[in-house]
Sequence to fold (372 residues):
Amino acid sequence: MREHFGPKTWLYPMPVLMIGTWGADGTPCLMNAAWGGISEENKISICISENHKTTENILQKHAFTVSPAVAAHVSECDYFGIVSGNDVPDKVARAGFHAESAKTVDAPVFRELPMALECELISYDPVTCRLVGRIVNISAESCILGSDGKIDPKKLDPIVYDSVTHRYYTLGTPVGQAFSAGEIYK
Amino acid sequence: MREHFGPKTWLYPMPVLMIGTWGADGTPCLMNAAWGGISEENKISICISENHKTTENILQKHAFTVSPAVAAHVSECDYFGIVSGNDVPDKVARAGFHAESAKTVDAPVFRELPMALECELISYDPVTCRLVGRIVNISAESCILGSDGKIDPKKLDPIVYDSVTHRYYTLGTPVGQAFSAGEIYK
Fold:
């Protein structure tokens, strides 16, 4: 028996994308967004409205970073979505985060967010709020790498946004290997 | 100390989007995709190349459904990404899935996938592979609803795709309430 909810913006999983930028005066800005994801190979698209400080910064610097929010800093990552950089220009410092220059683009990474997609602006459309970026580098702190040198998701500990109950979740247990689990039906 | 990986299509979390369509002869088709997500209010965008049976079906019917893949059927959901509906037209039946008509659009939902976004085609661009759909209804089996009548993510049990190690994960534990956890920094 199916229940019907009408048009809703619900999906599982939804990401918590932390968008990092530099202001014109060098102040770091960080905000969160859930409406976005990988849109093509080495490209990410995010819905972000025109009035954000982040949007102004991206259009000026042509660059931004996207870090997955992590469980260790769920309160800070939530805070960055509650207050605007237009109203609280020092919100990064207030939450105790530390900005550093990304290696490849003119945007900050944050010591507290151990993985970042370093992106160049491809396009922004204020009508649809669609920001598209080219991923030019992925950087990750050594401490979240496994013995194979790859990012270990349990060490990164990214959070997932539940758009129905507005809760953040961790990742659980591995339940299968992609491109392999389904071989039994071939 | 940051390690640098160059341009990679990595993000956490990445979804496992199960795209359901009807063929011209009424055969149900189901494939998975990880490059996509919510792109605006009540809109979803997915990167899907032109050669898929699913793309042909969508362009013909102007409709599709998107169901989050679930842990109980991880092998079947993986299988739907391994084989093409062009080569194995009865792949839905082979994996033991059961298609039913969605309430609001000309596309199937599946008994084994208890939540579905029922979508109308807005646009498809074969150059960027970008499919955009309008979410006209969300349907969910009663058995995944909590006592509050909302979708309970632990009952739905959606899976997350790890694009680095190609593993599927469940959701873990709740770690905070959005628009609330961050209030302590205000």
In short: The helical segments of chain A are 53-61, 74-82, 91-94, 153-156. The longest strand of chain A covers residues 130-141. The radius of gyration of chain A is 17 Å.
